[in-house]
Each structure stands twice: as structure tokens, then as C-alpha cells.
Amino acid sequence: MNKIFTLTLSPSLDSATTTPKIYPEGKLRxxxxxxxxxxxxxxxxxxxxxxxxxxxxxxxxxxxxxxHLKELLDREGIDTDTLKTQDWTRQxxxxxxxxxxxxxxxxxxxxxxxxxxxxQILLKVQNIPHGSILVISGSLPPGTSLAKLTDLVKQAQxxxxxxxxxxxxxxxxxxxxLGGLALxxxxxxxxxxxxxxxxxxxxxxxxxxQELVRQGGAERVVVSLGPQGALAVDRDTCAQIVPPPVKxxxxxxxxxxxVGAMALKLAxxxxxxxxxxxxxxxGSAATLNLGTRLCSLADTQRLYDYICKSSRG
Length: 313
Description:
21% strand; alpha/beta; four-stranded mixed sheet; six-stranded parallel sheet; 313 residues; 10 helices; single chain; UDP-N-acetylmuramoyl-L-alanine:D-glutamate ligase
């Protein structure tokens, strides 16, 4: 199996709590917060480990929040490669309102990386073994240019790394323009923005995903469709994987769980359909949990088996 590494340029320390209801002005009495690691690539690495694989997470840490983040990952047994930075790691807040069942996510700006700090992150990427999978997930820190990101991806590809990019907007577009990505996972709105036209029906979505593949931006495009699952496309295959109905408690972590599961299958040499079945199962498994918890192996395997049986039926 190929080794999996993840890169998170804007990690976070996530806290989750509940309150009876949310309203302006008054004091909102909350339960004791639960702290968990946050940031796209970090959560992808955690999902890989939860699903029985191995992954190493590369990310910057700063201040007490960064140290707390690293401590939480150490407790989970996640292999980390960190860089201490001047700016403190951000802290995000997730609040569940009991009366409505709604979830409110307060996301802070990422910590800035100096040029010297970014260059040290780049050195860590350059030390990843040839043939490994590198998952770059999450937003760019304030002040980090697209040119720095694309230069990092270009160097990773030159070293023989298979790059999965899970981002959005200009960052995702810049990486697709560079080309040769192993996998991207836009949602339908993000795909519409990438293609530059509205996607009104399933055929439009399929055609747009195939267009990204034909243009050489990515070998595989998996379009997340929410309750409808995901549409997966490569040069030879097009398939939609629909998840089983489940009672959703939270959507936090579903996308990262999906990417982690797909990266694990890709590292094991699975084909596109099997990779996305496992990804949809993991994403659905994450929604069974309240707060910021990711997928579990037991839930993912149960849902994966269901999807496989339903597809054969």
C-alpha cells in the first residue's frame, strides 16, 4: 500500500458545545465544551487511521492552541510532523441549539505563515517518499498566495507524489490549471464555478466532471451531491453512488471522512467505484455523530456493505 500524507496549512482547534436555544443579546448557557483537532488534512489523516489505515499529518502549530491541537492528536495516536510558528493556531466554535436542532459554526481566520515558515513546510513535503499519496485539504492561510500553493503541488508531482486536492474557489482552480491531480472532490456549486456555467440536471453535472478529466486537471473527479451521494468520473467510468438513509446529527467532518476513505482505497489500488462507495459510506457514517466527530470503522463498514449489496441488487 502507498503511504498517505496530509497537508493542512490552516489547522484549527475545534470546540463543540450545546445550548438550549440561540438568541441575541442574552447570555447563552452552554455545556462543557469538547475539544477536537480541526483542519481539512488533519481530519483526513484521522479518518484514515479510524478506518484502519496509516497516515501522517503535516501542519503548522502556534501558541497554546497549537500545542493543545498537537496533544489531542498524540492522544489519538496520529502520526504528526509539525512546524512551530509565530502566530497562534486558530480556535473554531461549533454550537448545537437543542430547541431547533440547528448547528452554528463559527470559523476564525487561519494563522498567517511567514515566507520562511512556508518554505519549511515545503521542505517537509519534499521529504515525502516517492509514490506516496499527498492530500492537500483546507483553506489557505491569510497572505499565502496561490503561486506558493501551486509551486508546492508542482514540486510534489515532480517528486512522484499523487496529489489529492480538497479545496474550493481560486485555490482549487489554480491546482486544476496546473493539472495531473489524482483526485478532486468539488460539490455541485463548486463544480459549476469551476466550469463557468450553471448545472441544471444530472447530465450537466456528469458532463462538467468529465470535462475536468478530459482537460487533464484531474484523473478522477468525485462530485459530492449531499443526500444524493456522489457522482464519480474518470476517463473510463461514470457512476453515481447513493448513500442509505440515515438520521443525520451533524454534517461536520463528513467531507473529510469521505476524502480519507477514498485516499485509503486509492492507496490500496481500488477502482473508482469501490473507492467512492467506501467514501460515501464514511461520509454518511460521520453524520451519525453529534458535534465534530468523524466516521467510525464499524459504522462505515456497515454502510459500505449496504451500498455494495444495494448496487448488486
